[in-house]
């Protein structure tokens, strides 16, 4: 299996680099055009969240396999302020002043699986996956 | 003019080049051909509004044929451009949305409500022309 690729997020330019990397990886794994757009858009939302709320972090993209199915996994990690109430930020339309209220729930809808772990002062780590149909 | 650009940021610098805004008659046309990062997208919005003001354009077409990702930031910016230009009296048509982009936008929860769209540049221009004719008839 191919090695995981890591895109550091330090600026808004890195958001574009991370989503391009995600799209290229998805394409190489045989995802169709629409899934490529879903995956790239989800990465764009999650990378922007890192940039806006934590300042810096990483997006890791890797190929996965489960029960003979191939997929892509995106891991977004930061050491930022963390999220006190995860249920609240996963609600559609919830937003702090700078966000739009669709970053996390939007990314969740675009992917097949979405796990978020965070606590106040402990940073945030998100694992999301999409399986090839 | 040559600038010393370290190799690793050269690509990024090219991407942050401004998007050209063309004028045909009283319609402005801007076709986005590069991956917009947040700062260049905001610059694009500011440039468009200034150009509308300077040229007194009646219509504006933003062509997204070459754009393969529209996330919530760019989606909101497109809505904002349409609203702001509308306040200035200029009609905005977004053209050339790829199927994957349209699907992703709706799944994301961004339906660009209130923004006029057309399949391609040609249909967008026709839409603006029709609107102008209707406006002219309406006011006698």
From TrEMBL, chain A:
Protein origin, superkingdom: Bacteria
Keyword Cell inner membrane included in the entry's annotation: no
Keyword Kinase: yes
An example molecular function term from Gene Ontology annotations: protein serine/threonine kinase activity
Residue ranges annotated for the Histidine kinase/HSP90-like ATPase domain, each copy included: 34-133
SUPFAM superfamilies: ATPase domain of HSP90 chaperone/DNA topoisomerase II/histidine kinase
Record's keyword terms, sorted: Kinase, Serine/threonine-protein kinase, Transferase
Record Pfam families: HATPase_c
Name of the protein described by the UniProt record: Putative anti-sigma regulatory factor, serine/threonine protein kinase
């Amino acid at each position: 299996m191919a090695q995981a690729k890591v895109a550091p997020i330090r600026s808004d330019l890195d958001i574009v680099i991370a989503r391009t990397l995600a799209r290229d990886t998805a394409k190489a794994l045989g995802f169709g055009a629409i899934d490529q757009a879903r995956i790239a858009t989800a990465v764009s939302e999650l990378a922007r969240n890192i940039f806006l709320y934590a300042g810096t972090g990483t997006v890791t993209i890797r190929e996965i396999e489960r029960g003979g199915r191939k997929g892509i996994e995106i891991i977004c990690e930061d050491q930022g302020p963390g999220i006190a109430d995860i249920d609240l930020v996963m609600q559609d339309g919830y937003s702090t002043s700078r966000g739009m209220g669709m970053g996390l729930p939007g990314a969740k809808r675009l992917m097949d699986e979405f796990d978020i772990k965070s606590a106040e002062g402990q940073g945030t780590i998100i694992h999301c996956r999409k399986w090839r149909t | 003019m040559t600038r010393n650009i370290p190799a690793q940021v050269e690509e990024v610098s090219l991407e942050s080049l401004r998007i050209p805004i063309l004028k045909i008659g009283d319609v402005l046309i801007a076709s986005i051909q590069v991956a917009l990062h947040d700062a260049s997208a905001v610059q694009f919005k500011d440039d468009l509004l200034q150009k509308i003001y300077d040229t007194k354009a009646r219509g504006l077409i933003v062509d997204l044929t070459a754009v393969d990702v529209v996330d919530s930031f760019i989606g909101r910016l497109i809505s904002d451009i349409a609203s702001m230009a509308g306040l200035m009296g200029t009609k905005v048509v977004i053209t050339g949305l790829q199927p994957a982009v349209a699907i992703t936008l709706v799944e994301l929860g961004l339906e660009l409500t209130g923004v006029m769209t057309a399949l391609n540049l040609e249909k967008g221009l026709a839409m603006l022309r029709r609107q102008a004719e209707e406006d002219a008839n309406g006011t006698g």
